[in-house]
Design brief:
With 395 residues, the protein is of the alpha/beta class. It is 42% helix and 15% strand. Strands 1-11-10-9-8-6-7-5-4 form a nine-stranded mixed beta sheet, with helices on both faces. α7 links the parallel β8 and β9. α6 packs across α7 and α10 runs parallel beside α11. It comes from Dendrobium catenatum. Pfam families: BD-FAE.
């Protein structure tokens, strides 16, 4: 296991990867020509051609005209609009329902409330930057949002595409963090934008959060998202021979679980596979936790109470199964050296959410069974610094 303290940091995100061998229609409406003279009625009186309509009639005409305008849209745009509205309504209902369920789990506790308020305050301070990233996320033509990769409601991913479409591009499949509770694919917008500007396609994979799902659901969703990227990214201009897996915080844990469990399947246990570990060139873990047994008490002190965390992890008996560090220590005895790609773990020494020892211990476990791994420590950097500020150089 190789521990590296990098040179002084710069702001921004910069990844260097190893090299390897409906058409819009516009119609111009021409107003009808009306005679300027009045029209005679049967009674002989002259009646104005255009009479003032009562207010109710005008309202009915306005409604009718809006309906006609909607129906005049191309069918693809009507379907897209209806789909977006329906999806937004379903997401709002689902989020409200799950929030109420989550509050029943959390109860009233000063730890999680203070941490939540601190997160809100932190988000307010970053709001100017969030607005810029949000505008890019919703309005940039380089972002393909909510591509379906599975059957579950959260089985969606966002693609960030480079402006230069010449040649096939390297690809990063990214699993976002969020304490297993508030993870969302849009959290990867900043990473996606920065890497897309450097000619790299980024796929931000969404997954079910607790209480909509537990850890096995999250790992399953991440694995299906990785499978979609591996098997379909070529149609979006990606190079299937240059795919990298990345996760941050809880996403690093979920992605590493998916990776290790996939290696076990390929070694002869479990069901058939839809993707292969050999399709990934490397794994990058940012501020991740990989031994859940060692982190239960730490999370409890930080406000993620033991009862909730064990519910997320499907009980204390499942902690070992969903601790990649513990799983890999047993792999070589059962299967020899597992087919894992090189794994590079990044962590800040000032991280209080997940101690940097978590990455160092996982890297040591990986190297002990013959997997190429190293940990890169950033002095004084916190849990979110690596994601928001640090310039990475990955070679």
């Amino acid at each position: 296991m190789e521990s590296i303290v990098p040179p002084p940091l710069q702001s921004g995100l910069d990844f260097h990867f190893p090299s390897s061998g409906g058409r819009d229609a516009t119609e111009k409406a021409t107003p009808a020509s009306f005679p300027s003279s009045p029209v005679a009625s049967d009674t002989g009186d002259e009646v104005p051609l255009l009479r003032r309509l009562p207010s109710a009639s005008r309202r009915r005409r306005a409604v009718s005209e809006s309906q006609i305008a909607y129906l005049s849209l191309p069918p693809t745009r009507r379907r897209s609009f209806s789909r977006d509205v329906g999806h937004a309504a379903a997401e709002t209902y689902l989020l409200t329902r799950l929030t109420l369920i989550l509050l029943r789990y959390l109860g009233v506790g000063y730890r999680w409330i203070t941490k939540f308020l601190a997160l809100v305050f932190y988000a307010v301070l970053l709001m100017p930057g969030f607005l810029q990233v949000g505008y890019y996320y919703f309005f940039s033509s380089q972002v393909r949002r909510s591509i379906v990769y599975g059957d579950q409601p959260r089985n969606r991913l966002d693609l960030y595409l480079p402006t230069d479409s010449n040649g096939s591009k390297p690809v990063v499949a990214f699993v976002t963090g969020g304490a297993w509770i508030i993870g969302y694919k849009a959290w990867g917008s900043l990473l996606g934008r920065r890497l897309a500007e450097r000619g790299i396609i980024v796929a931000c994979i969404d997954y079910r959060n607790f209480p909509q799902g537990t850890i096995s659901d999250m790992v399953k969703d991440a694995s299906e998202g990785i499978s979609f990227v591996c098997n379909n990214i070529a149609s979006y201009g990606g190079n299937p021979d240059r795919i990298y897996l990345m996760g941050q915080s809880a996403g690093a844990h979920i992605a590493s679980c998916a990776l290790v469990h996939q290696a076990i399947k390929e070694s002869g246990e479990g069901d058939g596979t839809s993707w292969s570990v050999s399709q990934l060139n490397a794994y990058f873990g940012l501020s991740g936790g990989y031994n859940m047994l060692n982190l239960v008490d730490h999370f409890h002190r930080r406000g993620l109470y033991r009862s909730i965390f064990l519910s997320i992890m499907e009980g204390e008996q499942s902690l070992r199964h969903f601790s990649p560090e513990i799983v890999v220590r047993n792999l070589s005895a059962r299967f020899g050296v597992p087919p894992l790609p090189p794994m590079i773990l990044y962590h800040g020494t000032g991280d209080y959410s997940i101690p940097s020892d978590a990455s160092a211990s996982f890297a040591e476990a990986l190297t002990s069974i013959g997997v190429q791994a190293k940990v890169v420590l950033y002095d004084g950097k916190t849990h979110t610094d690596l994601f928001l500020q640090v310039r990475f150089a990955i070679c």
